[in-house]
Amino acid sequence: LNMGVPGAALASLAAELVSAVSYIVLLFKKNLIVWSKLLRLPSWKKLEPLLRGGAALQIRNFALNLTFIAVTRVTQSIDDTGVAAAAHAMSIQVFQLGGIVLLALSSVAQTVIPNAMIEQVDPETGERKGGPLAAKATVNRLMSWGLLLGVLLGGLQIAVLPFLHKSSPLVEVREAAKIPSYLASIYQVINGMVFIGEGVMVGTQSFLQLSLGTAVATMATLKALSTFPKKYGLVGVWMGFGVFNVTRLFGVWLHQTQNGPLSPRKLAKFYEDQKLGNKQEGKKD
Q1: Distance CA 12, CA 33 (A)
Q2: Quick one: pLDDT at residue 145?
């Protein structure tokens, strides 16, 4: 429609409106919401956990936005010609090529893990399914898939980089984007594990740890952005991205091995308490 930037904004708004209406229609069809309760205020008992979780996730969103704003500011200050900004935009496109797929796995983890944590008994066979151990096994499988897909998508991105770089007619932009694009492809290996690990945090309702981990990663990235770009230019900006992703990966490692609800220590304590409870019930019988 030849509307320029306002047209892009209107297109985004239209897409959001279509998505919102579609979700509302689907929710009504499945009887998950009704008009009589749509505008009724929920009780504090139901609202409190949502507010606590939402407040913690807002810290994470603030940290993510601060990181990307800082990256944009530093990138634009590298030169006055716009070459660095154009090269950075090209590298971001490379980064998003596989990142969108890996980010979808985060949503999968958010859904699958809570379901796996619920222990159920098959009414026909009496076999027990689910529970913390089953959820832990699911987490391990998802992390393996994340690593594998990260490697595959990163390799695919490296393979198609020569074609992607042809999207700019300027040689200086293509040259400036070369190393950042390779870094963006390598980071997919980390992203595969980070996105799934953070999805597991959401699935286990470890909202505060997720938010604090992202905040720490943002602080480390801001420190890196104040140092690396001065020496390495645009490559230094993407080195800062690497700091951001590695720090988040460390947070995922802490959650899954040290202090998360599915960490070995917590699982051992859970089953010790369960055995003790079974013994006490046996004595009562």
Answers
A1: 26
A2: 93
Query: Across the strands, what pairs with 121?
Result: 128
Evaluate whether 239 touches 232 at the Cβ level (below 8 Å). yes
In this structure, the number of other CB atoms found within 10 A of the CB of residue 123 comes to: 7
- pLDDT, one tens digit per residue, over 94-126 is 888 788 888 888 888 999 999 888 887 777 776
Whether 109 contacts 142, CB under 8 Å: yes
* Cβ contact 132:270 at 8 Å: yes
Q: For residue 48, what are its two tokens? A: 């409190």
Q: Tokens 């993407």 sit at which residue? A: 238
Q: What value does the CA radius of gyration of the chain take, rounded to a whole number of Å?
A: 23
3-state secondary structure the chain: CCCHHHHHHHHHHHHHHHHHHHHHHHHHHCCCCCHHHHCCCCCHHHHHHHHHHHHHHHHHHHHHHHHHHHHHHHHHCCCCCCHHHHHHHHHHHHHHHHHHHHHHHHHHHHHHHHHHHCCEECCCCCCEECCHHHHHHHHHHHHHHHHHHHHHHHHHHHHHHHHHHCCCCCHHHHHHHHHHHHHHHHHHHHHHHHHHHHHHHHHCCCHHHHHHHHHHHHHHHHHHHCCHHHHHCHHHHHHHHHHHHHHHHHHHHHHHHHHCCCCHHHHHHHHHHHHHHHHHHHHHC
Contact 275, 269 (CB under 8 A): no
- pTM (2 d.p.): 0.82
Would you state the structure tokens that stand for residue 66, as one six-digit string? 């601060």
